[in-house]
């Protein structure tokens, strides 16, 4: 049985107050809080184990290298990769997607070639492709959403044409929470000879991921949403794709030899990791992934699904509240209150110690598709409790009732 109170005891920050109220942290989709195990591992590394990796022969360097490289193996297991050599360390999913854009796509795509994107995408999975559009004449083909903000894999596959060179798609929307059937997209794209990049920023923290079963060519994750440190992350790259990818950052550690005449690159995946890496953040990511593995991702997913379903039922029954997204979604709940600006909602909730997020969530094309300027978003995590969800729903209800009452007054306005 999933013991959320025992889990919460692992997160020191959850015991604090905000303006005299217990902190209710419902902004996990933006960045997750860190368990004590990660915090202590970071402190221990800096206090007793820190040195540069890969280069030293002394004890501390060897120890730091062992800790650092063990994370690569942990990430590979966590994602179901065939080998740790398919894992490139990055500073996060944004860095990972940019790596694919610069190092794999840019050398291969020509003017008139196409990249298929969905309307669900975060800016991190849009802007790097716009760079190729601006600089190389690559065309972006957009796939619109179906009913309820869902993405039909068939619509994505229908968008693939003779000049399509890549499909780039999110596994889970950071606004609507909907899971995309990326495995179906990858199967269909493979039949057409088109690689697929999956942005797994949201998904990997909330459910099991198996890149072999999905069949993707690239899969990007970010550590700070996985209860690990900011500045950590990874890119899974299928070995065949990695062999097609050219190094795009030059410096130490990504070479075997340098002469006046040229360079000999290091093997995979080190040739894509130039310079002194984010040693301690990546060690912390490894600890975070071990923590998630011990909890069990299926148990985490079941806990969070239950919270999201309950919150949706409650909010959907409140006059003046509109909830976006399908019923069966990840632990992300975006909503509106009629007559109230989304940022005003977030500020009022914050006065009660409830941390949410408001705005476009770096997904402006999606919000334009939905016809809204901004939304408020509550996002749940493995430490969120039923009581916190009830407190949040009660607060939204009170804000909605107050807004309705003001509108009912003669000349009423918020």
UniProtKB/TrEMBL annotation:
InterPro entries (alphabetical):
Aminotrans_V_dom, Aminotrans_V_PyrdxlP_BS, Cys_dSase_SufS, PyrdxlP-dep_Trfase, PyrdxlP-dep_Trfase_major, PyrdxlP-dep_Trfase_small
Entry keyword annotation includes Repeat? no
The EC number on file is 2.8.1.7
Q: Which CDD domains does this one have?
A: SufS_like (cd06453)
Entry superkingdom? Bacteria
Under catalytic activity, the entry for this protein gives: (sulfur carrier)-H + L-cysteine = (sulfur carrier)-SH + L-alanine
Q: Which SUPFAM superfamilies match?
A: PLP-dependent transferases (SSF53383)
Aminotransferase class V domain span: 24-392
Q: Name one GO molecular function term.
A: cysteine desulfurase activity
The protein's required cofactor(s) are namely: pyridoxal 5'-phosphate
Top EC category? transferase
Q: Which GO terms describe its biological process?
A: cysteine metabolic process
Could you tell me the keywords of this UniProt record? Pyridoxal phosphate, Transferase
UniProt record similarity statement: Belongs to the class-V pyridoxal-phosphate-dependent aminotransferase family. Csd subfamily.
- Role according to the record: Catalyzes the removal of elemental sulfur and selenium atoms from L-cysteine, L-cystine, L-selenocysteine, and L-selenocystine to produce L-alanine.
> Matching PANTHER family, A to Z?
CYSTEINE DESULFURASE (PTHR43586), CYSTEINE DESULFURASE 1, CHLOROPLASTIC (PTHR43586:SF8)
Q: What is this protein called?
A: Cysteine desulfurase
